Amino acid sequence: MLVATDIHRHFEGMHAVDGVSIEVAPGKITGLIGPNGAGKSTFMAVIAGTLPTSSGTIVFDGKDITRLPAYRRARLGLVRTFQLPSEFARLTVLENLLVAAQHNRGDSLFGALMGKRYWIEDERKLVQQARALLKRFGMSAKESDYAGTMSGGQKRLIEIMRALMLQPRLLLLDEPMSGVHPKIVQEIQYYLQDLRHEGLTILMVEHELHMVERLCDTVVVMAQGKVIGSGTMSSLRKQQEIVDAYLVG
Amino acid sequence: MNSYYAINLLIYAGVDIIACLALNLQFGVAGIVNFSFIVFQAVGAYTAAVLSMPPDTAPDYSFQIYVGGLQLPFPIPWIGGAIAGGLLAVPVGFVVLRKLRSDYQAIALLVLSVIANTVITNARPFLNGAAGLALVPAPLADLFDPATYGYFYVGLTAICTALVALVAFRIVNSPYGRTLRAMREHEVAATAIGKNPVALKMTIFIVGGVIAGLSGGILTGYITFWAPSVWLYPETIILFAAVIVGGRGNNLGAVLGALLVPVGFEEVTRFIPSSIGPPGLIPALQWVAIGLLIIGFLWFRPEGVRPEPRRVFEGAPD
Hints:
heterodimer, A: 10 helices, 40% helix, B: 12 helices
């Protein structure tokens, strides 16, 4: 589904990502692990288009997207979440979901000027769709609350639901469990497993190795901007170089 | 209150409401800190003036020098003013909004405002320099008795205000308005869900430019005069104060702010005896008061008198 080849990202001489190549298989969860400063989040940002590549190519579903801006990649179904909460704070929880929907006739200047009758049917359908997601993620009661007032875990859920409103084909999750209450970590884990069973492809950066072991079909290990190994978590535990570089710590 | 005074007040209120609604779209809803807003109003005013005035060779107009002088009938000068405001927004937005971070955008736009005023002041052959344009024809003035013309102009201003309010309310309450608010809250996250921030900013910047241009056309048609001294950059600060006091992101707040700040301050200070203190003290105090008002509201009530409403959808759980 996603093939990234020889990706480099330099910051004024510092090689944050240094020749990384990975393949993400469809319908699987691929984990990306490594110590702090390994370049995982930078790599995710490069894949999502938030940061441009210094060199290398990214092919998504057979299409070269290396030069596409982030918003066009998102429209193709390559949707990311962020390491730090990135909710739209002064929009309600429901609005956070609605704003991500792609097919709303009122989401253009022309549509807005045409008036409510022009777009209300689209809006009603999307409200239903968003409410179904809120119900699934146990957040129906919060739909009218400002997203900025939610807890860290709830903000993570909002981000995931917001990404799902785009009907993504590949979901890029950057440390979805970071700073989240253990109870919500469990919930997020179940939701991600459900999404995988439904066929969604996920590439996930995560530090919590037990979680990675439970969730990920394939794991890629990065250190100092390079890939130092990949495979299942159990196979990686047998490779001394990887154990020394990361797993022991 | 005599009728001339009331007409004057109503027309200024209309112009300020139109300007504040436009600034609210740009700043309150989309988060663009347009410190050059007054330039767009000025472009609309100059354009409407030179489209409605006769050539500068005409007998009564030969004391000034300006381009244009097309003597076009109403409402073409106002439409031209609005278009000019929108057209100016294209290159300005293209340079300022694409690459710069929002704080640098604000600085660049402030600098633009100062440069534009300086250039127009000193380039006399273009728009008569510091002296400005005088004897701008009032729209359809020859069809009315001078005693009743003011009422007609109030009506004309009210129609324009209503149209602009309709546009502003439709934008703010639509899914498009929601997208603009999302971009204001977190631009990178908005990009990650497929929104093109440059296109969104450019569009609302142009819409704001069009409305600002129209407000300039209305104002110059009433005061029949336009010069660099009436569009100095602090005028933009007054409009910002109005939007902040009224309530950023709320159209009703923008209307309220327009009535409280530009109109209210002008009018309240009118009742302070001019014998108090040296000449120029009262206008100076107005600026002090506006500065304190902005700081006070940002400190104690940053959401303004009428905060942006929370959107609760039909069928939401209690």
